Amino acid sequence: PGRVVTLLEDCGACTWGVAYEVRGEQIAASLQYLNMREAVLGGYDTKLVKFHPQEKDAEEPILALVYIATPQNPSYLGPASEEDIAAQIIVSSGCAGHNIEYLLRLADFMRYFCPQAEDKHLFSIEEALISILPCLYYTEESLEET
């Protein structure tokens, strides 16, 4: 398993991201898939939270379903230093791709779509990962130099 963005319950915290609206026939299929992936297999709890869209015309928050990590989950890795998380990301991949791409795309998303959110933790992990990457790639020239 690799590292993924994990929501931890914190009543005073704010999380930035994307909400997807599902309607009609999509609701049952989406909930069945997500509940299996996140709750049954993933060990997450479901919660309804207030989601505040960025659009100026949105008057009221929308109720959104989120999946909250629980430390009881056997795959839950818990807190670690940014360097340790970056080292874990470098050697991890899953059915959706490599963790390196996951982290870099997430950091880009946050910069582009949520520039007002300062996620120091995320960007510190990205920085640690980028500092490790050159150490993993070498050529015959670099081996001859050493």
From TrEMBL:
> MF terms per GO, please?
gamma-glutamylcyclotransferase activity; glutathione specific gamma-glutamylcyclotransferase activity; transferase activity
Q: Might you name a Gene Ontology BP term for this protein?
A: glutathione catabolic process
Protein keywords: Lyase, Transferase
InterPro entries (alphabetical)? ChaC, GGCT-like, GGCT-like_sf
Keyword field contains Lyase: yes
The record's top EC class is lyase
Establish whether keyword Translocase is in the entry.
no
| Gene Ontology cellular-component terms listed | cytoplasm
Q: Which reaction does it catalyse?
A: glutathione = L-cysteinylglycine + 5-oxo-L-proline
Reported EC number(s) for this entry are 4.3.2.7
Task: Please explain the role this protein plays, according to its UniProt record.
Answer: Catalyzes the cleavage of glutathione into 5-oxo-L-proline and a Cys-Gly dipeptide. Acts specifically on glutathione, but not on other gamma-glutamyl peptides.
Record's protein name: Gamma-glutamylcyclotransferase
Q: Which organism is it from?
A: Smutsornis africanus (Double-banded courser)
